Automatic annotation (TrEMBL), chains A, B:
Cross-referenced Pfam families: HTH_IclR, IclR_C
Name of the protein this chain belongs to: IclR family transcriptional regulator
One GO BP annotation of this record: 3,4-dihydroxybenzoate metabolic process
Record keywords: DNA-binding, Transcription, Transcription regulation
Location of the IclR-ED domain: 73-256
Annotated SMART domains: HTH_ICLR
InterPro entries reported for this sequence: GAF-like_dom_sf, HTH_MetabolicPath_Reg, PcaR_PcaU, Tscrpt_reg_IclR_C, Tscrpt_reg_IclR_N, WH-like_DNA-bd_sf, WH_DNA-bd_sf
Keyword DNA-binding: yes
Species assigned in the record: Chryseotalea sanaruensis
Length: 257, 257
DNA sequence: TACTTTTGTTTGATATTAGAACATAAAATT
DNA sequence: AATTTTATGTTCTAATATCAAACAAAAGTA
């Protein structure tokens, strides 16, 4: 099914370079040339040339010539994309209000193949172990936002995408592919979706789509909280109306844009 | 002054590919192959190969095969960097409190050469002058955060960096290089800095550094507002203490990390 | 210290990629 | 509809990039 690409139309050095950038993460903030070579599966010679190139371009820095790390300049890459989403900035204040009112986290995401990708996030809790920040990817099939985003797609396209998805069973509550497909009809009708510990035990969330002035769904927004504080009933009886209210305000603000 | 790099240690296809990603921005959300070639100064053949490569890797998409645009996957690149800054997520709730309390914007940034780069931002106003989002770069010499960040550097290194900087006169209030250098001593002593319409007429801000447990400055945080609402006196008499209070809390939270 | 292992650098043969020129297709203009 | 203009796709040789392997330099270890 994957579109074939002619070998001569593929720039492998670019792929390798991007892989090197992605190789840096929380647990690999600093790496030597050899670390990178191992992690990205390159020869050391190749890893070296790529790192020197990235360093020369200012995406990577090295204090001592041994340990390399990314510079803030890599943000310019990711944020080339975000700057194309003006509604994101616009929605942020409303998301803050919402998070504050209900004292739970509020997030916005878009779909990228079988994952949702966070494009904005507001959390109120200080405890917050580690970061589901902007750019984080989660499997669409187990999240409330994934459900509303898939439900809003052209049914044919959605079916195709779902066909390729893996439906990993992340918790005992994660839906099977068949259950998911059936459930999607409900989501389409009601206009919102819930994930009840389908992604992770202890996490519940409810999501709505956000539409542009033409009615096209451009993102999803959700409220999520810990099951110990948030019952299923809370989600539907208390949070849904708050969420809908903010969505309405965001969509209204979107008209004058 | 620029470090020389041997030609054989530079991967030009990687540079070109990164330039292509950066070519997409708010005013160029969608581009044809030829648009890209023109903007990045590539041959069409080359632009084509790079776009097909990026598409194959999922960083770029094209609905019709003509117009290309970035996908959320490019966020993974920037996210590689942000995930290496755990203090960022940790500080966000405090920044939200601060922005809420004083009803003005609050931002966090780090230095990248002669620019500051936003790594977190909270704004309360809905009116939105539009997006100084994460990843935005501003010239360090005209910003309060740039001042505290430069003031916290090793003086030799700072001097070297300042020597290379251009000190563009963005408003009549922008400091000259000499005035800036002198002013930096004051900033070093007092531990905070102001920018009074030095970046843009009508914008005032005050900034403090944030230090890790070893006392090393890892970022700057500021409050900024419009001159019509925020006087210079407000900044020092009202906002400085609020800012310091949050910085203290953030630094305290940083200890248990 | 000397020995071993790991890491970084260089080199020359092979494979990939770029650019120029040309071919085709689509859009715009008449 | 025909013509012109512009954009896109293809091909082929020159220029680049890769690999493997040898070499050099550090960093560990005994």
């Amino acid at each position: 099914m994957n579109k074939e690409i002619k070998k001569s139309d593929f720039v492998q050095s670019l792929e390798k370079g991007l892989n090197v950038i992605n190789a840096f993460d929380m647990d690999h903030e600093q790496m030597t040339l050899s670390d990178v070579a191992k992690k990205v599966d390159l020869t050391r010679a190749n890893a070296r040339r790529i790192l020197l190139t990235l360093q020369h371009l200012g995406y990577v820095t090295s204090l001592d010539g041994k340990l390399f790390s990314l510079t803030p300049k890599v943000l310019s890459l990711g944020y080339s994309y975000l700057s194309g989403l003006p509604f994101r900035e616009l929605a942020q204040p409303y998301m803050q209000e919402l998070a504050k009112e209900i004292n739970e986290s509020c997030s916005m995401s878009v779909l990228d193949n079988s994952d949702i990708v966070y494009i904005a996030r507001v959390h109120t809790k200080r405890i917050m172990t580690i970061s589901l920040g902007v750019g984080t990817r989660l499997p669409a099939h187990a999240t409330s936002m994934g459900k509303v985003l898939l439900a809003s797609m052209d049914p044919m396209e959605a079916a195709k995408l779902i066909g390729q998805m893996k439906f990993e069973e992340l918790t005992p509550f994660t839906l099977s592919k068949n259950a998911f497909i059936q459930h999607l009809d409900v989501v389409r009708k009601q206009g919102w979706a819930i994930s009840d510990q389908e992604l992770e035990i202890g996490v519940r969330s409810i999501a709505c789509p956000i539409r542009d002035k033409k009615g096209k769904v451009i993102a999803a927004i959700n409220i999520s909280g810990h099951a110990s504080r948030v019952t299923l009933e809370d989600l539907v009886k208390k949070y849904l109306s708050a969420l809908k209210d903010k969505v309405e305000k965001i969509e209204h603000a979107l008209i004058n844009l």
